[in-house]
Design brief:
By secondary structure, the chain is α/β, with parallel strands linked by helices. It contains eight helices and eleven strands. Helix 1 runs parallel beside helix 2.
Length: 245
């Protein structure tokens, strides 16, 4: 049996080949799979569970069918794009929502999973904004706004974020190693799996002479990547996306 981890698909109507890549990924990985963990940014933007687009409903149906028909548990950790995804859509998709930092026992190995945006402490402007937009009171007020107004706000934030990202160096977008180590020690885990940075890689390092690992799952665009774990260990895979799909 194995467990799968994906992140940063950024699904939207503008990149249908990525949606098709997700469907193919699910169709081809049904045998001997215990669970699928989606580590945030499944969608490019999310402004509330009351929005119903054809894409959102089709993805929800696909995920729920995948989970039920194959007896595979599906879990979701919020990303910085879809942090407003709520219980209603999670239920529609057959997903269980998890805390932003979540510890799991992965075939005898203690693993910390998260989206990864909380690791990027060098991106000070984002961290300041994150504290604001994750305020429960502000989110409650935002959900009271008319849907069309929330759409405008959501896409303005998305456009501004994309523009700023183009000028950020990899050092700012990458993780802060001291924060990685702090969280691993705090949660008593030897391995971390996350997304967000779009810098797909496996990192090995030591803390106080003990070995640790960090897997950056990577985004889906021209390639898709995923982490697969079983009783023999944890591996990172990268495969091309069919851009003609």
């Amino acid at each position: 049996m194995s467990t799968l981890f994906i992140a940063d698909l950024h699904l939207s109507e503008n990149h249908r080949q990525i949606t098709q890549a997700l469907y193919s990924f699910l169709d081809n990985r049904t045998k001997n799979v215990d669970a699928l963990y989606i580590l945030g940014d499944l969608f490019e933007v999310w402004i509330g569970d009351d929005e119903h687009t054809a894409l959102m409903d089709k993805v929800a149906n696909k995920l729920k069918t995948y989970s039920i028909e194959n007896n595979i548990k599906t879990y979701f950790i919020h990303g910085n794009r879809d942090f407003m995804l709520g219980k209603r859509y999670a239920k529609q998709s057959g997903m269980q929502l998890l805390d932003e930092h979540y510890k799991i026992d992965l075939y005898g190995e203690k693993v910390l999973i998260l989206h990864g945006d909380t690791l990027c402490l060098a991106d000070k402007n984002y961290q300041k904004m994150r504290k604001v937009i994750h305020n429960p009171a502000l989110q409650f007020v935002f959900n009271l706004l008319p849907l069309h107004f929330r759409k405008k706000i959501g896409w303005k934030i998305r456009t501004a974020s994309q523009s700023k990202k183009e000028y950020k160096s990899n050092n700012i977008m990458g993780v802060t190693q001291s924060e990685v180590e702090r969280l691993l020690v705090k949660h008593k885990c030897s391995t971390m799996i996350h997304g967000h940075t779009h810098q797909v890689a496996k990192h090995e390092f030591e803390i106080a002479g003990q070995p640790y690992k960090r897997f950056d799952v990577g985004d889906w665009f021209t390639n898709f990547s995923y982490v697969e774990a079983d009783e023999n260990g944890i591996e990172l895979y990268i495969e091309p996306i069919d851009t003609k799909a």
